[in-house]
Write a structure and sequence with these properties.
The chain is α/β, with parallel strands linked by helices. The protein has five helices and eight strands; from the N terminus they run E-E-E-H-E-H-E-H-E-E-H-H-E. It has a six-stranded mixed β-sheet with strand order 4-1-5-7-6-8, with helices on both faces. Strands 2-3 form a two-stranded antiparallel ribbon. A hairpin with a 2-residue loop joins strand 2 and strand 3 (27-28). Helix 2 (64-74) runs antiparallel to helix 4.
Amino acid sequence: MLNGLVLAGGQSRRMGQDKALMRYQGKPLFEHAAALLNEAGCKQVLISRNQPGYLTDIIADAGPLAGVHAALDVLSVGDELVVLPVDMPQMTPALLRSLWQFGRDQQKACFVATRILPFYLPVTHQVKSELHTFLTAQKERKVVRFLNAIHAATFSGYVNEPGNSGDAAWLNVNSPEDWPDET
């Protein structure tokens, strides 16, 4: 089953408030991100938030990969995961769909060339084990290093939805100055 994961557990220091709860197009960013993943074809969306009622990290202080690790812990081998950070409000379902379809075709994890997030990850025993070892024994925290360690494919042929420029999808909202115009 294709699953989505919204990474919404950051501390939002530069934003000055919890980004996941900021409203974009009438709803909190974490709900907006979940809707993007649903529109992209995900049958279930998990929210990594380290709050009651949400997916919480098993390994503390491990950054975004801790959320991925927690998601892999609740998913079954054979499942698939599309990982999207909460702070990319202008990401498109078409791009996410293109990403997971490429990963499925390649039968391996993948990410968009020159970007790290979002990414696609097939859930296998090997991926679960490698991520656990990566975070615990190696004490690594960098997403790009994990994706390189599992030999993720690089995807360069994404499709944009009409009316949304390629650069807009990559907007990463980290401070009030980054906040997009919703028009």
